[in-house]
Amino acid sequence: MRVREAALTMAQQQYALKYSRVFNGAGSIRKGELVWDFAAQPTLVSRTYSARLRYRMGKLPGVYVLEPDLVDLAGGQSLPHVYEQKPPRLCLFLPGTGEWRPSMLIERTFLPWTVLWLFYFEAWLGSGEWEGGGVHPPAPGGKRETHTRN
User: Fold this and answer.
1) What is the SS3 assignment for 67-81?
2) Which of 23, 48, 99, 150 is the most exposed place for a label (fewest CB within 10 A)?
């Protein structure tokens, strides 16, 4: 028999984010939504990105890159592995697979996943190939694309 894990509260999520030993950021809970702004730098020689996480209980968290403008960095090309182009909402996991559950800390999942996504984004800028693997969200009326890491 599988035991159902209790969802973490917004206050618990915010506390973990606020006292993270890895990620610096700031945010608040207002009108039932946790908004957390943080900096992400995929490597020591990478630029620093400004990102925002938005989360409501019962919904999936979303991460958006605010600065720099990823579409500008991509020379106007469509960004790979995103749910939205402007502002870029990153595709960090496949919903419904158990990769993320409300009982998991956002600070230990979405923030590191954001850094990893940015690492593969920077590689994509140089090569034109998305090496991050995963299932790409479908375009309207289209099919999902699956990419495996080589």
Assistant:
1) ECCHHHHCCCCCCCC
2) 150
Q: Which residues are 34's β-sheet partners? A: 29, 55
The radius of gyration of the chain from alpha carbons, rounded to an integer in Å, stands at 16
Q: With respect to residue 128, please indicate whether it lies within any of the assigned structural domains.
A: yes
21-27, long-range: CB within 8 Å, 24+ apart, which pairs?
Answer: 22/107, 22/111, 22/112, 23/107, 23/111, 27/53
Q: Report if residue 4 sits inside a domain.
A: no
Whether the CB-CB separation of 145 and 48 falls below 8 Å is answered with: no
Query: 106 and 13 in contact (C-beta within 8 Å)?
Result: yes
Q: Which domain holds residue 136?
A: 10-147
- Residue 81 placed within a domain: yes
pLDDT tens digit sequence for 52-93: 999 999 999 999 999 999 999 999 999 999 999 989 999 999
Q: Is residue 1 part of a domain?
A: no
What does the longest C-alpha to C-alpha distance in the chain come to? 52
108, two tokens: 């230990």
Q: Taking the complete model, does pTM exceed 0.85, yes or no?
A: yes
Sign of CA dihedral 139, 140, 141, 144: positive
Residues ≥6 apart with Cβ < 8 Å to 138: 144, 145
